[in-house]
Amino acid sequence: MANIEILEEVCSGDVGDWRLCFQWTRYHYDEGDPQMGYRFIWRRPDGSLQAARGQARIPSANEMFDLISRASAAGWFVAVESTRDD
Description:
Blueprint: E1 2-11, E2 19-29, E3 35-43, E4 49-50, H1 61-73
Antiparallel strand pairs: 1-2, 2-3, 3-4
């Protein structure tokens, strides 16, 4: 099992709707050292996360690239990799 700490996030859509999010996260495993990584995940209209066994349906390449572009414009996509602690 892992506890996931969200360090950075960008989401598509409007608050109150289902939103696809792209995150930079730290995975804290029950055994072993934490690991850093990116993930796509859905947020429900109430803001909670929709965990789906490690998978998130990405509706289109355009939406995926849009989220990556937003993360880049926010200054954290790729740049955060130089601050990795795993």
